[in-house]
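Our preliminary data section would be incomplete without showing what the modeling component actually yields. Below, a chain of 285 amino acids is followed by its predicted structure, encoded as tokens that our downstream tools consume directly.
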Amino acid sequence: MSSDPTPRQSADAVPEPWVNWVAWELLPDTARVDLAVLFRFVAAVRAVADHPSAGPERKEAALAALAAPFAQGQTPAETVAPEAAALAVLLNQRGIDSHLAWQVLQAAGQDLRKTRYRDWSELLTWCRFAAVPMATLASALLGLSDNEVRRFASLALALQLLEIVRRASSQARWLGRIYLPERWFSEVGADISDLEFLRISDPLRKVRDRALDQADVLLDEASAGGAIHCDGWRLRAAARALLAETRAAVGRERRATEHGTSMILSAFTRRLIKARAVWGGFFGG
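Predicted structure:
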């Protein structure tokens, strides 16, 4: 019997959210297969860090199981998390350095002990560990150039900030963890306890908007000089769609009056994004 200690929930309780993105629909089948392996590893890491009832010791054991395939030497099979084993095999097959997986784990490990962030610099450092390694690994699997990797990393950081804003209330309520910088709250006279309430107070909106402003800056960096260049029209279309979807989701979050809005856009917006992305994928170069 496996002794994998990773805290888990049922598949029905934790759907794979990336399949709902237009960008995912546009990816070639081979890219979806590879990226799903990466995303499942990242999701498993986050499931450990964000488990509402597992204690720090159990979480540390679970992270060790996720780190095992990337460690030096032989590791007993029963202590290896399957999501990590699958990623290790994939990276080995593609000749991709797996050290970036350690950084994803490092961000999760910090979450076991750290629950507050003083300022934007401190939060950005955490985001770079949490989001940039995943973006770099995804870029390697997709065959992007070094310049495009940097732009894709900016897009990943923007997505990370959007997720922090969306989940701020549930993170505070269930985990006592607040990523939004304490300094931002004090500068506008916002009460951190407002995160416990469903509706968004005016001072809290200023804090949220400041994070979303940073997301917009990162999206501008990702789109500077045109769309992210990829080989093949489907990859080019997917890159365009992901950027457009993220911008639309940031705008939707600015207008939200309650915590926890869905990142799934309206059917009309999705169709519009898809049509523009496909056109750009074919004719945008």
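The radius of gyration is 19 Å. The chain has a mean pLDDT of 89. Preliminary results of this kind motivate Aim 1 of the renewal.
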